[in-house]
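User: Here's a structure from my thesis project, written as structure tokens. My advisor, Dr. K., wants to see whether a designed sequence matches the one we expressed. Can you design one independently, without my sequence as a hint?
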């Protein structure tokens, strides 16, 4: 799950034609009839769609151009319905040293990535001059052919609550979310999958006229990169996977197993807040701050908190504390402290408690239909990949066990998923059993893609190297955390194509 300043909660962001080898047709292992997709000409145009399109305007100002890639909805029926996939390109400015295209994915699942050439380009510095930086909104995301289940909330990830009655409410909500998706988008749901996104990537490779692509993916984007290399071996050049979930971690409860690292992050934030008790008044010790958090959550369970126009109940109040735990940077800890102060006032039943702009944005994304499209796609991808019927009671048992490890994170990480009520995936999940040279990057205190998962991928891929940022509680390192050591390792690899001789540990 990708959660950064750019993308929010993933619960609840080129000037000239590319020169290169001729486009490759589909391999013998792929369905026939795909040549017209692989050999299509991309029509590059100005990115801004109008005066209010800030993303497009930023891309245009940087010299990028945009296009729409045509792909089949169902790769087994290439003559059937088609989709468009939105693409941006910031062309290499050093043609003599050009490496080729670097495809970018911001995670999610379902994270919009069209603007990534701007953010990644800044992190790469002069190295970016060697690459065509390619941003892609995957199928059904952002500017691509849309999908929206018409939900009243903007996330399918929320807490089970305090007791079994609250858990039963979770069950009812997840069942309703799944049924709405089936009613509104049922004809396309079987094709909202990671495997199809990987196929779209390969069509884009062909349309760009390239034999190989380089790739940088964050979080779920790391998993997508793993799937692509397995489905299309030999078609990648330089690969960077930042925030690395293993195939074992990729399940319908993506956060399961992260309770301990989440609790450590919450305690570390409580220590930080306690040192600033004069500023926030949340408690002078870790224990006092954690007791304040508990008081807020219990108050939300007794009666939902009123924060401006929002009603925050026991399913969503824990998310307000969990969301900022993706990063231990001081500015993110301050955001959580500010939001906590507001929730404390609401828990004390003060009249007319108003959210600040950050909390208002968070609550709008979680509690209103404004976040429906992004949440629908995220859920559809996960459920389309790995949905299985586990039995409702199994989730409650897991929640109760996880609650003893982390009262805040446990009931979120182990809560029932809409996938419990989803049709079985059309395809089996990809078995990642290959070995690919890649640079893996992960912090030891990552609360979304835990460090153990990155180590599992490193063991699976002996040709890879792992850059560890020790002591950091950060999800997404390169260009986001300000760790010069890790950024240097990534840029050196992208510049030279040579992995470090051994794994590298960078200190926080």
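Assistant: Designed independently from the structure alone:
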């Amino acid at each position: 799950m990708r959660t950064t300043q750019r993308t929010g909660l993933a619960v609840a962001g080129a000037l000239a034609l590319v020169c290169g080898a001729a486009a490759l047709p589909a391999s013998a292992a792929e369905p026939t009839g795909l040549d017209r997709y692989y050999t299509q000409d991309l029509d590059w145009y100005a990115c801004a769609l109008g005066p209010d399109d800030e993303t497009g305007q930023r891309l245009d100002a940087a010299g990028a151009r945009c296009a729409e890639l045509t792909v089949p909805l169902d790769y087994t029926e290439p003559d059937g319905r088609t989709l468009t996939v939105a693409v941006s390109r910031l062309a290499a400015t050093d043609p003599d040293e050009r490496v080729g295209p670097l495809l970018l994915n911001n995670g999610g699942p379902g994270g919009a990535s069209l603007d990534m050439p701007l953010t990644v380009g800044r992190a790469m510095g002069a190295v970016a001059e060697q690459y065509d930086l390619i941003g892609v909104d995957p199928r059904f995301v952002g500017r691509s052919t849309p999908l929206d289940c018409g939900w009243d909330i903007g996330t399918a990830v929320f807490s089970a609550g305090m007791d079994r009655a609250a858990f039963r409410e979770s069950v009812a909500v997840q069942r309703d979310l799944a049924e709405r998706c089936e009613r509104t988008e049922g004809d396309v749901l079987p094709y909202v999958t990671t495997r199809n996104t990987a196929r779209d990537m390969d069509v884009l490779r062909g349309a760009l006229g390239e034999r190989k692509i380089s790739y940088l993916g964050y979080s779920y984007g790391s998993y997508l990169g793993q799937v692509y290399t397995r489905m299309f071996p030999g078609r990648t050049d330089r690969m960077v996977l930042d925030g690395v979930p293993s195939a074992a971690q990729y399940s319908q409860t993506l956060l399961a197993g992260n309770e301990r690292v989440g609790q450590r992050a919450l305690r570390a934030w409580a220590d930080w807040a306690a040192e600033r008790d004069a500023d926030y008044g949340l408690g002078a010790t870790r224990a006092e701050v954690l007791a304040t958090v508990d008081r807020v959550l219990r108050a939300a369970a007794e009666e939902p908190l009123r924060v401006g126009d929002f009603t925050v109940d026991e399913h969503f109040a824990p998310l307000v504390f969990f969301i900022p735990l993706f990063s231990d940077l001081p500015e993110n800890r301050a955001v959580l402290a500010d939001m906590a102060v507001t929730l404390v006032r609401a828990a004390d039943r003060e009249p007319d408690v108003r959210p600040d702009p950050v909390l208002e944005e968070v609550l709008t994304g979680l509690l209103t239909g404004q976040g429906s499209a992004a949440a629908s796609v995220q859920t559809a991808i996960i459920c389309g990949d790995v949905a299985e019927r586990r039995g409702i009671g199994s989730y409650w048992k897991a929640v109760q066990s996880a609650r003893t490890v982390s009262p805040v994170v446990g009931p979120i990480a182990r809560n029932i998923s809409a996938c419990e009520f989803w049709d079985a995936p059309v395809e089996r999940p990809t078995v990642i059993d290959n070995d690919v040279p890649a640079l893996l990057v992960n912090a030891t205190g990552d609360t979304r893609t835990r460090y153990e998962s990155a180590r599992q991928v490193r063991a699976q891929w002996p040709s890879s190297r792992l850059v560890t940022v020790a002591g950091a509680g950060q999800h997404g390192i390169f260009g986001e955390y300000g760790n010069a050591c890790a950024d240097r390792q990534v840029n050196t690899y992208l510049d030279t194509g040579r992995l470090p001789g051994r794994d590298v540990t960078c200190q926080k």
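When you compare it with your expressed construct, this may help: The chain has a mean pLDDT of 93.
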